[in-house]
Amino acid sequence: MFKSIRWKFITIYFLLVFMAMVIVGVFLINQFEQYHLGVVRDNLTQIANSLRISLKDMDWQKNKEDVQENITYYEKIGMEIYVIGRDTNFTIISSTNLSYLNENATEILEPDLILSSFNGDPGEKDIVPKEEGLTSSKNMVFPLYDEHSRVTGAIYLRQNLEEIYNTLDQSINILIRATILALFITIFVGYFIAKSVTGPINDVTIKAEKMARGDFEQVVEIKSDDEIGQLGNMFNYLMARLKSVLQEMSNEKQKMDTIITYMADGLIATTMEGKVIHANPRALEMLRIQEKDILEKHFDETFKQLNERLTIEYLQNSPAKWSGSQMIEMEYGITLRANYAPYMNEKGDLDGIIVLFQDVTEYEKLENMRKEFVANVSHELKTPLTTIKSYTETLLEGAMENQELGKQFLNVIDNEADRMARLVRDLLQLSNADYQQTKWDKKEVDLNYIVEKAVLNLSVSAKNKEQELNYKGLREGVSVWADENRIEQVLLNVISNAIKYTANGGCIDVSLEETQNHATIKITDNGMGIPKEDLPRIFERFYRVDKARSREMGGTGLGLSIAKQIIDVHEGMIKVDSRESGGTAVLIELPLLQEKMCN
Ligand code: ADP
Question: Quick check: do 5-168 and 263-357 share a fold?
Answer without folding.
Answer: yes
